[in-house]
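Working notes for the structural subgroup meeting. M.R. asked for a predicted model of this chain before we commit to crystallization trials. I am recording the input and output together here so anyone reviewing the notebook later can reproduce the run.

Input as submitted:
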Amino acid sequence: MKHIFLKLVIAIFSLITVSFALLIPIVTSPKTFFEFPIIPTLEEKARNIFFHVPMAWISVIAFFTSVFYSIKYLIKKDEVDDIKSSSAANLGFIFCVLATITGAIWARFNWGEFWNWDPRQTSIFILLLIYGAYFVLRSAIDEDEKRAKISAVYSIISGLTVPFFVFVMPRIMTGLHPGSLGDASGKGPLFEAKAMATNMRIIFYLSVLSFTMIYFWILNLKARVEVLYMKNFENKN
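Returned structure, recorded in token form:
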């Protein structure tokens, strides 16, 4: 009953947040909380920030979660930790793909092309290759214990590259993405230049919170399903 109530709360909270993000009108002179101001050059496209940034955020959280459970596995040798590590990496990869797609759509309308090899786009593409190789590695090893050990080590090493490709590389190179070297705002105009109105900031942070809750909900569900599958398989053999 407790889990059902929690899931219901997360679902309702996320639905309300997404509804606000999509339905609040963008007007020239907002007069109420339920009106977003027009951001020059972005206009309606500004709504993408409520989805693109949280998806990228969840990718980072998921990859770090994978590292955490990989370390736990190497210490305790518990198969459940290996399952949680691979599940987190899997979700991180999915959200990374979604962040790439929403970023490409944004790039098409703001920069003229879906893909410009901007440092931010390049770094996320490299991460996709790194974690794509992780799943290839897991599928190539049949022995469970050996697969878990090698995957854990690979996950830890891969996780160490995440801060560089997400937070460092895009900021030390010139590019089109907000926050690149040469961007006067440092972190992007929507934040440092105070171009994002208070109500937009509130919805943005609620969106980040919603995506975070959904991520941990799916991770828990995915891990539980895989653990049950593993136990059933072991019982049959």
